[in-house]
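INPUT
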Amino acid sequence: MPHFPKPEAGSWTAQYPELGTGPVSYEDSISPSHYEAERDAIFRKTWLNVGRIEQLPRVGSYFTRELAAARTSVVVVKDRDGEVRAFHNICRHRGNQLVWNDFPTEEVSGTCRQFTCKYHGWRYDLDGSLSFVQQESEFFDLDKADYGLAAVQAEVWEGFIFVNLDPTNTTSARQYLGRLGTGLEGYPFGEMTQVHKYRADVGANWKLFIDAFAEFYHAPILHAKQSVDGESRKLVGYGFEALSYDIDGPHGMVSSWGGMSPPKDESMVKPIERKLRSGLFGPWDRPIEIDELPPGLNPARHPAWGIDSFVLFPNFMILVWAPNWYLTYHYWPTSYNTHVFEGTLYFVPPKNASERLAQELAAVTFKEYALQDGNTLEATQRMLESRAVTEFPLNDQEILLRHLHRTARDHVAKHQSDHPAETAVAISAVS
Amino acid sequence: MAVLPEQFVDLEPYAAWCLPTEAERYAKRLASSMDELQAFYDAAFERLDEMTAHLDALSYESLPGDASRLLWLCYSLVNVSFPVEVWRQPRVPDSGAAAVDVVVEPAI
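OUTPUT
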C-alpha cells in the first residue's frame, strides 16, 4: 500500500513517456567503445563542477583538477580582480604540465603570484597572460601576447565552480542547471564551510555508482544492519517510497522523507547516536535556522521531509539534508569500468566539542555506508560484464537511473551524428 | 606523564587511541581484536557525557593539549562504535577490497 501519493499519470515514470517502462540494458556501462564516446560527447561538452569558492580564499589561490575522462588537467585560480578563471594546465612553450608537484597526475593546491613552468621557466600571470620568456631574444618573432594559457570557460554558481571544456559552448552554467538549479538558489551553502572529504577508487562504471545514490530502494536491505534490530525489520516491511521526483533536461532529483534526525523514539537508534544526538541524517540539533527553504527543496513541502538528492548531469550530486547541512558526490571516470568517487560533507563550523562530535559521527557513518555501497558496485560491474543477462527491470523508485542512462546515451548519439568522422576514428582506435 | 586531563586518569590505559587523524583511528580499529575494541568502547562510552561536558566548558577554538587528546579519544570512540554496536567485527561486512580514504578533515 502506498504511503505517499503518486502523480496523476499513475506513476512517476509515466510522467515522462520518453523514458518507457521496459527493461533496460547496461551495455553503456560495460562497453569500452561507449566510454570512449562519452569522453568527447559528455565530459568535453558539459559543465563540470570542479570545486567550491572556499577553496580559493585569496588572490592567487589555485587548485588543479585531473580530468582524465576529458583527457586534460585544468588549473583554477582567483585572479587579481577576484575573478575565478580556469586554464588547461599546459605550458605554451613545449607542452609540459604547468602546475604540479612530485607526481604530474596528483592534484595540487596553493597560493602563488604567478605560474612558473618547471621546464624552461616561462611565467604566466594569474589571468593567464605570458609574462616572462627565458632568453626571449633567442626566439623568432615571438609575441608574448600570442602565448597566454589556453583558457577554459569557468563560472561560479551558488559558490560552486564549474568549467566547460567546449570552446564553442554558449550556454551559461546557470542556464545549463535549469529549473532544478534555480530552485536551489539562496540556500546558505556559503555558511557550511566545515569540510570532511572522502575519496575512493571504485571498480565500476561511473554511472553505476550514481545509480546507487539516485535510488533509496536499496537502503532498507543493503544497509539493514546499520539500524537497531526492530527498526531494521520495520524498514524492510515499509520498503522505500519517495515524497516526489522531478526531472528537467539532463538533470533529476528525488525528495525523501527522513524521520531520524531526531528520531521519534530514541530506542530506534544506536547508543552512540543517542549519546551524541547525530547519525546518518546528520546532527539532530540544527546549527542555524533557515526561515524558508528555496522552492526547489522539499518541493512537496512535506513535514516528514528528510533529504533531497539532485543528480546534476553528468557526474555531480548535491544532497541537502533537513538538519541544515549538505553533501556532494562526484564521479570521475578513469576507464569504462573504473572511476574515482569523491564524497564531501559540508557543515556549519562547530561552536563546541559536542557539535564537532555530532559532525564526526555523521561523517564516520557516511563512510561506513559508502564502504558497503562501493563494494556492491564492483560486484555488479563484474557480473554485468559477463553479459550472461542483458536486460534488467527498473521500478518506479528507480526512475532517475532510467533517466541518467538515457541522457548519457542520448549525448553519445547526438555527438556521433554531429561528428561522424571523429566517431569512426575513436571506435577503430579501441577495437 | 599524563596524556589526558587528570579527572580522566582511568582512561590513560587507552591513551593509544588519542590519534589526530581519521586514517590513524581507522587503521588502529582494523588492527585491533574485538575484545580490544569492546574494552575501549566500554571504558570510554561510560565517560562520554563527562568528557563532552569537560570539553564544552573550554573554548573549542583554543583547546589545550590534554583536551585535544581527549577529543581525539572521543573521535576514536565514534569510530569503534560501528564494530561494537553494529558489525561485531572490525571491518564493515562485505566491504572486501573497498577503501574510502579521508582527503580533507577539520584541523581539530
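end of record. Residues 158 and 185 of chain A are 7 Å apart (CA to CA).
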